Structures are given as C-alpha cells and as structure tokens.
Amino acid sequence: MRWLQHRNLWLGAMLAAVFVAAALISFLWTPFDVTKLNIPEKLQTPSMEHWFGTDHFGRDIFSMIMVGARTSIAVALVAVSIGIVAGVPLGLAAAARHDSPLDEIIMRSNDLVFAFPALLIAIMITAIFGPSAINAIIAIGIFNIPVFARLSRAAALGLWTREFILAARVAGKSASRISVEHILPNMLNLLIVQGTIQFSLGILAEAGLSYVGLGAQPPIPSWGRMLAESQTMITFAPHLALFPGFAIVFTVLGLNLFGDGLRDYFDPKISRGRH
Predict the structure, then answer these.
(1) Bridge partners, residue 90, by sequence
(2) What is the pTM of this model?
C-alpha cells in the first residue's frame, strides 16, 4: 500500500491513535475513578498499582490522562469543525466574488479576528460567561475561522482560472453552484491536511487555556490544568508534570507528523522534492 511508503504518515497515525483509543476507552473504563479523592495515597510515585503515580489528592494520574485525552480531543475537534463550517464558505464566497466589496469585507473581517489570539478571545468570553470547556471551544473555533477562510480563498482563486471551471461557467452554472460542485471537491485534500494541523494546534490551545484556568473546570480532568497544579510540587513530585506533559507532546507530535504525511501522500511531488 502506498501510504506505508510515507513514514511520517503511519508513525503519526500510530501516535495519534494511542491517545484517541485512550479517550474512547475512558468512556467505558478507567483504572480508577478520577472524581474520587484518596488522600492517604496522595503523591505516590509510579508503581504496579498506579502506573503513573497519584496526584496531591490521591487520584490516579493514568486515569486522569485517559479522561484528559477525551477533553482535549473533544475541544479541538469541535473547534476545528467550527472553523471549517464557517470559514470554508466564507473563503469560497470571497473567491467567487474576487475584487468585489464582498471579498473586501470578508477578508478585512478575517484580519480583524486574526488581531485577537485565541487566548485573548477566551479571556473576553470568560469575562462575560465564565470559564468552561464550551467557552474554550468557542474561542478556539472563532480563531480557526479566518485560517480556513484564507486557505479556502487562496485555493479557490487558483482553481477559478482552470479550464474545467471556465467550461462550467460557459455551461451557465452559477458561481455558488460551481463553488460547491467543482471548487470544493478539488480542495478537499488541502482542507484535510490543514484540518489535521489545526487539530494539533487546538489541543495545544486547549491545554494553554486550561493551564491559566480558562478551559475545562474541575472535576473534569485536563492536561493543561494538571500541569498548572503540578508546578508548585515539581521538585519533589516531578511525575505530576512529566506524564501530562508527555501526553501533550506526543499527541501534538503525532498529529503534526500525520498532517505532514498526508501532505506528502496527496502531493507526491513534495515528497520527491525533499530527496
């Protein structure tokens, strides 16, 4: 199979699959209840009973990482979906009405959103509605909209000059129909690759928002909040920070490798150009 020739693709897929599997399994089973406090067993080092040790409340860190994977993946997935659902139609509309007031309005609005990072958007949202995973999703999702809008517009502009698009215009098809039937299918590969990259960035953003207290709230475990809670105990209990840190690193690494492998898979000329 051709995908086996792309090392980044299958290596990234395996790394990401580990954490996706952990998230799915956590719906049915975890070694310990992550909401149950067990103070007599607090700050235990990794052992056969507690593979990653326990935290300052006696909760099993391995179980918390499993449930934390569910939180991070859910937040990133929904946020990227918001970016795709809202951003792609905007980009297609801007490309279809190139050099028109609509194009200018859409792109200048995207520039305005780009001026506010996800963290700043989250601060404004939480100042009004309070911190929660839902508000983190909204903040990251809003930041993703101009990313996909710009990408869609750039890709669509290149396609509008192709011969098969000119043939569709001569056949009398409207700009919106051409965008849906011809432009969008020919840029799906690009959107899939960018979606994978934004998914990894979404996990990082969720961890960052949870680290500063703007993401998922207790008792829902979150990798970012686990890091925040461990910083005062890192000298005598480093495992509290190591394992959630490794979870973030390997998940993001896996998704980035997967996205890079997908790009090589869809465009073999890129892969050949590296050798």
Answers:
(1) none
(2) 0.88
Tens-digit pLDDT profile for residues 94-106: 999 887 898 899 9
The full DSSP string for 181-218 is IIITGGGHHHHHHHHHHHHHHHHHHHHHHHHTT-SSPT
Q: What are the residue ranges spanned by the domains of the chain? A: 2-24+58-273
In what helix (H) or strand (E) does residue 270 lie, and over which residues does it extend?
helix 268-273
Query: What residues does 60 pair with on adjacent strands?
Result: 54
CATH architecture, domain defined by 2-24+58-273: Orthogonal Bundle (1.10)
Q: Six-digit token pair at 40?
A: 């007599």
Read off the pLDDT band of 270 (50, 70, 90).
very low
Token pair in block for residue 82? 């918001």
The answer to whether the CB of 142 falls within 8 A of the CB of 113 is: yes
C-beta of residue 203 within 8 angstroms of C-beta of residue 259: no
